[in-house]
């Protein structure tokens, strides 16, 4: 199996057992991927397809607080 990334010059050649390398590589090109950081315990979480200024909520896996995209506790 061969793979040539459309976005950069990454090449991969191997078997389906190592195809995870390609999937991991493709993740590096995902758009709208952002990392939010919990202001309470400083844990970070990768969010995909979320606008940083949206009012979406997320739960910190570390301290369990419900936080907004700025990492502040959501009321
Ligand atoms: Zn690439
Ligand atoms: Zn936290």
Automatic annotation (TrEMBL):
Species this chain originates from: Candidatus Nitrosopumilus koreensis AR1
Protein name: C2H2-type domain-containing protein
């Amino acid at each position: 199996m061969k793979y040539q990334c459309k976005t950069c010059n990454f090449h991969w050649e191997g078997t389906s057992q190592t195809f995870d390398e390609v999937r991991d590589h493709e993740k590096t090109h995902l758009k709208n991927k952002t990392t939010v950081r919990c202001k309470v315990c400083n844990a970070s979480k990768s969010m995909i397809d979320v606008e940083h200024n949206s009012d979406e909520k997320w739960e910190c896996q570390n301290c369990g607080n419900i936080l907004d995209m700025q990492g502040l506790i959501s009321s």
